[in-house]
Amino acid sequence: MSKLSIQLNPIDVAEWRRHREFSEAYPEGARPKRIVVSPNDPIQNIVKPDWQYMFKLSDEKYPEQFWAELIAYQVGLLLGIDVPPAHAAFDSMTGECGSLSEWFYAPGEEVFYAAGYFFYKEIKNFDRDKGTQHNLLTAQQLNVRFMGEDQIYDFWSMLLFDTIIGNTDRHQDNWGYMMTSLPHTKSVARRKGEQYGIRLKFAPWFDNGTSLGYQILPRKFSQWDQVRIDNFIKKGTHHFRWAPDNLSQVGHLESIEFIAKHNSKVRSLLMRRAKRFDVERFSDVMRTLVDLPMPPHARLSAERANFVIRLTSRRMELIMEKLNAHH
Ligand SMILES: Nc1ncnc2c1ncn2[C@@H]1O[C@H](COP(=O)(O)OP(=O)(O)O)[C@@H](O)[C@H]1O
Ligand SMILES: [Mg+2]
User: Fold this and answer.
1) Distance from residue 207's CA to the centre of ligand 2 (Å)
2) Which of 53, 206, 210, 215 has most ligand 1 atoms within 8 Å of its beta carbon, as the pocket-test mutant?
3) CB of 31 within 8 A of CB of 48?
4) pTM greater than the 0.85 cutoff
């Protein structure tokens, strides 16, 4: 873990600048949130100076939910998955607590396209509300069209990450592509008559908070024995469906079983990545988060941290079983 990637103190955004357009509320997505802009000389070195951040609060029903976003970022670091940095933050003026997610591009310089933008064009009468036609086959076709074959490893790394954290909400607007323009070399520019070429890549995997058992209330943790944990993990699914003509949701473990069976190269790459995940280091990270002095009502409880560690370790074991089964 790099020294810079985990905070020891929560960030107070009360004095941060407000976004000229979205300072009150950001219209997109389910949870309350607003955009804030960091100072030029932030106190904490994990904060990028003069940069846009999404300050996202928890669903009222689940006050601890924002921790899932932060823990997911730490899981991303351990696995080597590209997730926007997310930190614990509060507003000392309003009392709000939440996660602070670093903007993953410089607005005006790069453009982000949610996958939904392309799904809506690709699939007639796409159900934008629920995304019931959001599926792996179409995703794979779009990815190949935009980036070629090599992206399959990155895409499946995301599916591995989502399986490890148990993310159920990677819908068509919770992932996408960054479009950047690259200056052509002089000779290419002359030949094509264009100064710039367009390049697409996956955006970092953002919005990871619908995961890690966030919906389970703390007073229930003691009732979760091994059997119950296993049942919970086994019935978890991705938001993705299989294909336009097979609209059943892809199970988390089912996805790992599928790739292990059908693509030995991706299987072994995922295996290597999963092995990077060290449960001991993850437990250390969780302890650091428990110790973070957030306002008293918004701290991560040791009980939840332990529950998340149990859940995640067991998920890792079941994933390894699936990856090993087709060796
Ligand atoms: N770190 C970020 N960088 C860039 N855009 C972001 C970032 N976080 C959120 N967004 C944008 O804001 C939208 C809503 O945020 P999201 O985290 O998905 O919230 P919700 O949980 O309410 O869906 C996203 O779909 C994305 O377009
Ligand atoms: Mg979202």
Assistant:
1) 5
2) 206
3) no
4) yes
